[in-house]
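Lab notes, practical 5.
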Amino acid sequence: MTDPLPDAAGQRRIVAAVVTFNRIGLLRRLVARLREVPGVAEVVVVDNASSDGTGEWLRSLEGTPGTPVVTRLLDENRGGAGGFREGLDVAVERGADLVWLMDDDGLPDPDCLELLLAHDGELDFWGPAVVDEERSDRLVFPIRLPGTSTVVHDMAAVRAAATDGLIRDVVIPFNGVLVTVSWCSGSARCVPSSSSGATTTSTGCGPNGPAPGSPPSSTPSCATPRSARWARRCWAGG
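Output from the prediction step:
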């Protein structure tokens, strides 16, 4: 693993952390997009013991021009929680101030990070709306509005429900979520089982369930910034 490159003086260091397993085609597309996004210092990819050539392809990226890709090849599949824990640990080791978390089957709009960063300093855990790649007006994960029984399914309803471009206290974890390292204070706090600030999601495309447990008063604000979108295919199995 190479040493992290220094950032410009005063600039927040943003590291993208991707977890992948046996989806090399989608991973190639995502990594290519992330390497084009201004502000991403490094892309960390955690491979959950793929058998489709992912590890070999990732090793081939070492030393190539552009945004550095840092790989962590696991010897066993630790699942999503274990993979993101590893990704967060690597990002923190490499001096990240913000970690941009994502699965391998999503694709951020080119200006997604820029729109999210407009709220840097206001929030500790926030992310974009997750929309269907084929129908950009449709949410992949419908959102249950906090404190209500209302479930919204499209971007028009999201915009109508937003205040100053945000829907607070709801976020889709690991699909373009930004997390401040100062809030994490160790990545164990940022995995789904202990992150009561995020709603749970179904494995298909059904409505979100409520956040696990009752959010404590210290729960960070979560948000869906206006027009910050994350395109994702709706996989039947999650």
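Observations recorded by the TA: Helices lie at 24-34, 54-60, 79-93, 112-117, 155-161, 181-184. The radius of gyration is 17 Å.
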